[in-house]
Amino acid sequence: MKSRHKKFMAIGLGLAGLGVIVALVLNAFKDNLVFFYSPSQVVAGEAPQGRAFRVGGMVEEGSIERQTDGLTVRFVVTDTAQTIPVVYKGSLPDLFKEGKGVVAEGALGDGGVFVASQVLAKHDENYMPPEAAHALEQAAKAQKTVVTQ
Questions:
Q1: In the list 52, 76, 84, 98, which could disulfide-bond 39, CB 3.0-4.6 Å?
Q2: What pLDDT shows up at residue 97?
Q3: Does domain 34-121 sit in CATH 3.30.70.2750?
Q4: Sequence ranges of the domains in the chain
Q5: Which of 80, 79, 73 is nearest to 113 (CA)?
């Protein structure tokens, strides 16, 4: 075999190996990919059956029901057009409240109930971490001190 043919074979094998690696990485990425759906999309059947996804919206007023075991919580997520019942077993985030935004990750169970494995409370755009608020407060005090001198 000529050296030119050996080079082409090495390049071809390298590209084939690279293709296999890319296919494996993309397959692993696809299995871990979780899409977001609104309650309207879930009710319309656009959400995947038997796969994990996220549903988000507002926690409907008066819908939170805590079970006697202390961990199981049932609530309703709405996008003001449609609602979807959610059941979650675990501790809820501090920001979780009726009338506030929420994102739940899980899958659809029997009877159209969303069985959440994780609940994330969303904050509004006015939220500021305590550390940032403290830093701004300190900066404002320092600026007042400089101006008055």
A1: 84
A2: 87
A3: no
A4: 1-33, 34-121
A5: 73
